[in-house]
């Protein structure tokens, strides 16, 4: 039998509870100072009254009503107006007084609750009950009676509790006796930045999405950005097309010679990484890919990371004037994010909205390296990128990611093999030292689900962008960065690189099978 879930009023939090919290639920919201506990509770009360017609009561042991009115107005929440409409009552009190009131069937609290038909209660904060006794057993009995009394008068309650640090062992009494525990944290990231997180520790009687979810303030309150696991149900647009999936049309890169290496272009809806060191032309290639789509009437999305928003499109170099025209026409959407303030989960959900609205046929992320730097956990990086690629494939977008390699010359070394193995195609750009000159070489290391040319070809960057020219036919160790005459020492065969790419693909396939399939 389906249960009507109670909406929390906080964007993203209901998604973590797969639709909302179950009725008759006591929820503990605990956290360190500044984590957003009181705001989350106020948001729960306010939106319950305004959006769902559920009157609420706020019991405060510390804050005076005037301060709550002021703080709520910062987010556009007019609590006084709710009181005038009998949708809210604020009761400044003490733990002793509330305890005594709840033990009396016809107490003032009971009359207030019944007079407005209260559905929701917020208590800020139950930490003050510890003043009543130092005996752990007595405190547990006292809190049990308090929560039981509350739940007789309402459908759900949010109980605020302060904690000095989230890095502690074991659980406290309050966590044992409530139905749901939500923990907020405000963590130091480096020397110049803090980030808020929300984690559901337990939810009795219903499932929830595990993990530390990004929590951020905006002009209208708090927003929760669930971890990438919330997107696991997405399917790519061509998933059920059977044999047609193997015959996907090709999308031109805008570079004739590169299209030839790909046997006609990149498979539509696929994901590609263009890897190379600084100056090899990764952003130029991405710009040509975007420009080709825009000329053909496709919408394009550019996701750019950096420190200056004004330089987001200027990074395309020679193509900047041509692409700028399409931004004015609305055909090219540019989404810029500062590397200093990047929250990957927030970006994921913003992309979800932009893709649904803009509906791009092509998408460029510049760069994958900066995006990965914003995810501080290697395991989560793989999960996150997998979710990102599922999202792009779900919308049928053909995506290109640039990836910065540290070494300009020397043996081919890519540390992020597990990560790059998630992508369908891998294009490698390298500097080559040949006959006293620095030249550039391009090759396709892999193309999932299709064949491609195995050649290593020279390319140049001119006024028209990248132009692919002749093959390096009489040289070896080209992709090692230093070409030499055939038969020379330290020869690195192309087949070694290709075998390495095959191992990446096989490892990725095994990883996916272990995780239960999917894209």
What does this structure look like?
This protein has helices spanning 13-16, 37-52, 65-73, 79-84, 95-102, 108-116, 136-153, 173-177, 256-261, 282-295, 320-329, 344-358, 368-373, 378-394, 417-420, 494-514, and strands at 25-31, 56-60, 88-92, 120-124, 156-162, 180-189, 193-203, 213-218, 221-225, 250-251, 266-267, 271-276, 300-306, 332-338, 362-366, 398-404, 425-434, 437-447, 457-462, 465-471, 475-476, 484-485. The strands form 4 sheets. It has a 9-stranded mixed β-sheet, sandwiched between helices. It is an alpha/beta fold and 519 residues long. The two termini are 33 Å apart. It is elongated and about 95 Å long.
In the sheet with the most strands, the strands line up as: 3-2-4-5-1-6-7-8-9
Number of strands: 22
Intertermini distance: 33 Å
Shape: elongated
Return residue spans where pLDDT drops below 50 for at least 5 consecutive residues.
239-246, 488-495
The structure class reads: alpha/beta
Mean pLDDT: 86
Strand content: 25-35%
Largest sheet: 9 strands, mixed
- The number of distinct helices, counting runs of at least 4 residues, comes to 16
Radius of gyration: 29 Å
| Percent in helix | 25-40%
The gist of it:
This protein is α/β, with parallel strands linked by helices and 519 residues long. 32% of the residues lie in helices and 26% in strands.
């Amino acid at each position: 039998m389906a249960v009507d879930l109670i909406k929390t009023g906080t964007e993203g939090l209901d998604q973590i509870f797969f639709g909302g919290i179950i009725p008759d639920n006591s929820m503990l919201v605990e956290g360190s100072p500044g984590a957003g506990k009181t705001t989350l509770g106020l948001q729960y009360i306010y939106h319950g009254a305004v959006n769902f017609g559920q009157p609420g009561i706020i019991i405060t042991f510390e804050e005076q009503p005037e301060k709550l009115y002021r703080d709520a107005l910062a987010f556009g929440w007019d609590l006084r107006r709710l009181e005038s409409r009998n949708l809210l009552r604020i009761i400044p009190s003490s733990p002793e007084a509330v305890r005594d009131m709840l033990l009396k069937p016809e107490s003032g609290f009971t009359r207030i609750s019944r007079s407005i038909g209260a559905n929701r209660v917020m208590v800020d904060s139950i930490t003050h009950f510890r003043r009543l006794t130092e005996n752990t057993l007595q405190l547990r009995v006292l809190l049990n009676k308090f929560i039981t009394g509350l739940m007789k008068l309402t459908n759900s309650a949010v109980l605020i509790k302060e904690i000095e640090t989230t890095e502690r062992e074991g659980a406290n009494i309050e966590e044992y006796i409530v139905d749901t525990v939500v923990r907020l944290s405000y963590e130091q990231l480096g020397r110049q930045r803090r980030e808020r997180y929300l984690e559901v520790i337990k939810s009795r009687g219903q499932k929830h999405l595990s993990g530390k979810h990004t929590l951020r303030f905006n002009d209208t309150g708090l927003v929760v950005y669930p971890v990438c696991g919330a997107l696991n149900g997405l399917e790519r647009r061509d998933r059920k097309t059977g044999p047609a999936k193997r015959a996907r049309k090709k999308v031109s890169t805008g570079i004739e010679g590169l299209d030839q290496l790909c046997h006609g272009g990149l498979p539509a809806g696929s994901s590609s990484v263009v890897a190379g060191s600084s100056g090899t032309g990764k952003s130029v290639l991405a710009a040509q890919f975007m420009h080709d789509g825009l000329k053909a009437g496709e919408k394009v999305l550019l996701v750019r990371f950096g420190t200056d928003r004004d330089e987001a499109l200027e990074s395309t170099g020679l193509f900047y004037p041509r692409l700028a025209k399409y931004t004015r026409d609305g055909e090219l959407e540019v989404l810029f994010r500062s590397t200093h303030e990047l929250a990957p989960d927030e970006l994921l959900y913003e992309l979800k909205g932009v893709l649904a609205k803009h509906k791009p046929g092509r998408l460029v992320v510049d760069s994958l390296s900066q995006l990965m730097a914003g995810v501080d956990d290697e395991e989560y990086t793989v999960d996150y990128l997998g979710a990102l690629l599922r999202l792009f494939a779900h919308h049928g977008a053909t995506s290109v990611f640039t990836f910065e390699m540290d070494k300009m010359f020397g043996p081919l070394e890519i540390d992020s093999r597990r990560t790059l193995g998630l992508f369908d195609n891998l294009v490698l750009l390298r500097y080559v030292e040949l006959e006293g000159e620095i030249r550039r070489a391009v090759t396709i290391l892999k193309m999932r689900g299709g064949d491609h040319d195995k050649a290593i070809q020279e390319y140049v960057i001119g006024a028209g962008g990248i132009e692919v020219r002749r093959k390096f036919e009489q040289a070896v160790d080209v992709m090692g960065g230093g070409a030499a005459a055939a038969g020379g020492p330290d020869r690195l065969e192309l087949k070694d690189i290709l075998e390495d790419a095959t191992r990446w693909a096989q490892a990725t396939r095994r990883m996916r099978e272990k995780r239960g399939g999917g894209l």
